[in-house]
Amino acid sequence: MIVRWFKAWSLKRAAKKAVTKTAATKTLRVHLRVFFPTRYKVATMLDNARSMLKPADIEIAEQSYAKVTDGTRLQVVEFKRKSDMDEIKKRENVSDDREVVVYFVNATIDPYNGASTRGSYKPWIIVTTSTSEWTLAHEIGHVLGLDDTKDSTDRLMTAAGTHSITNRPPDLNAYEIETIKKSKLLF
Prior knowledge:
There is one protein chain. This protein is α/β, with parallel strands linked by helices. The chain has helices at 2-22, 42-53, 82-90, 135-143, 174-181, and strands at residues 26-34, 58-67, 100-105, 114-116, 124-128. It has a domain at 25-147 and 176-181: Collagenase (Catalytic Domain) (3-Layer(aba) Sandwich). The protein has a five-stranded mixed beta sheet with strand order 2-1-3-5-4, with helices on both faces. α2 packs across α4 (135-143). It is globular.
């Protein structure tokens, strides 16, 4: 009797694993570099980003985490010049150019909560200490190809800034979900 129960349980478990393996889940690989602590915990911001990507069947895989405590501070100068951040990223030990490096820094010259490349090769994200809990998710949206929207402050990609989000959690619409699913940065 116990043997028959165990066999049935094993078959059910194997079937569940097979379904999990064949699912169309894609992964965004991230490397986290904390130069300054932010207002919200990195884990909270990651959880928020994960919840936003869940409807698109995208997972975030944390490839590495480094808290920079040796006195080195990332100097972010005019991040609008993509080449500046590309130079910084070249120093990273990242195995694939599609992996995203997230830098948690004190501030940028232009006073933004975050910045990122948009759908680019060698992607990077900057999140500042004055961030909101949705800034990382918003910048991940940019990295995956989304633009800001002026539609509503209920939306994650609001151009009004993530501090102005009124609906928690903020929304991604069907078009945005389809757009991020097509990103070449996903594994």
